Amino acid sequence: PAAATLRDLPRGQRRHIAMSRPEHQAPPEVFYNDAEAQKYATSSRMIDIQTKMSERALELLLLPDHPCLLLDIGCGSGISGEAISEAGHVWIGYDISASMLRIANEREVDGDLVLADAGQGLRFRPGVFDGAISISALQWLCNCDRKDHEPFKRLRLFFDRLYLSLRKGARAVLQFYPETAGQVEMITAAALRAGFGGGLVVDYPHSAKAKKHFLVVYAGLSGDMPTRIPQGLQGEVDEHRQAVAVSQRDRESKRRGKVKKSYKDKVIAKKEHQRKKGLEVRKDTKYTARARKSRKF
Q1: Is the backbone of residue 238 left (phi > 0), alpha (psi -120 to 50) or beta?
Q2: Torsion angle, CA of 109/110/114/119, rounded to 10 degrees?
Q3: CA–CA distances in Å: residue 136 to residues 23, 79, 141, 289
Q4: What are the distances in angstroms from CA 169 to CA 22, 138, 214, 240?
Q5: Which residues lie closer than 8 Å to 19 by C-beta, 6 or more apart?
Q6: How many CB atoms lie within 10 A of CB 212?
Q7: What is the DSSP string of 118-175?
Q8: Contact (Cβ atoms closer than 8 angstroms) between residue 99 and residue 105
């Protein structure tokens, strides 16, 4: 399929994109050198953003309530892998950057790490994974870093091998930053040709900074897995205020320890978690989580 390129955009917009997007500065294995990788170990803002996107991806996977084996594509420094471990699952991750994997090893993450290029397609045992996530990696496959790189062929090989590695009905949730609408079409077309079903989930579509794209796809049909794609999160988000609130909350929690949640807070949080998964949940009322008197017969 035809994909929009930088040449299709106005000159000023081309210059802005080329300066701001990492994939236009160098290939991923070069861009994510030791200095860049170190930022993912020390920057609280980067860690917080990556963690939240990973948690959102796990919500969209609709995993069962027991430990699963997940594939982390473009695992980087292991931030997304830590979110997987926190959720009670085990994982295998791969990344093209040796520097990022070195940081992951220094952080002593729980998953197994592999140095590999997603565009070359990794071979795993068929049906071995219960799901897969990827955070901020897929857009790198849309670029030609070498003369023999053809983006659509690399995407096809990536999705072909991913489809084979997932058990029937398992989901993959791939968060990415598309440069153009043409890239979204090319990525979606490659996934569909590999046999995947699913679609695109866009969180905060009207927010310039908080907008996030998640490709949610499933490998075939299975009776225990719904095929309906959840709706994206709506509303406006002020990322600066959110970042400040997070740092303030971290400082306060360190001073006084963790604040215990009430039973009602836990129930409301669980219902909100189910809503994000796209499940139907009753509205919150003044009776939510209220203790009920036992009836005498």
Answers
A1: beta
A2: -90
A3: 11, 12, 11, 38
A4: 34, 21, 18, 38
A5: none
A6: 24
A7: GGG-----TT-EEEEEEES-GGGGGS--STT--HHHHHHHHHHHHHHHEEEEEEEEEE
A8: no
| Residue 26 confidence (pLDDT) | 79
Q: What is the Cα 255 distance to its own chain's centre?
A: 32
Residue with tokens 């400040």: 244
Torsion of CA 19, 22, 26, 29, to 10 degrees: 170
- Bridge partners of residue 73, in order along the sequence: 94, 134
Average pLDDT per consecutive 10 residues, the chain (297 residues; last block may be shorter):
49 53 80 87 90 96 93 96 96 95 93 94 94 95 80 95 96 95 95 95 90 94 67 65 51 55 75 74 77 50
Q: Which pLDDT score is estimated for 209? A: 85
Give the count of alpha carbons within 13 A of 181, CB side only.
2
**Gap between the Cα atoms of 154 and 146, Å rounded:** 12
- Beta strands in the chain, from DSSP E residues, in sequence order: 69-73, 90-95, 112-115, 129-135, 166-176, 197-203, 212-218
Paired with 113 in beta bridges are 93
User: Coil, helix or strand for 282?
Assistant: coil
Q: What share of the chain is helix, strand, coil (3-state, %, to 5)?
A: 45, 15, 40
Prediction pTM value: 0.72
CA distance 179 to 183: 7
**Contact (Cβ atoms closer than 8 angstroms) between residue 179 and residue 17:** yes
Q: What is the dihedral of CA 250, 95, 54, 123, to 10 degrees?
A: -150
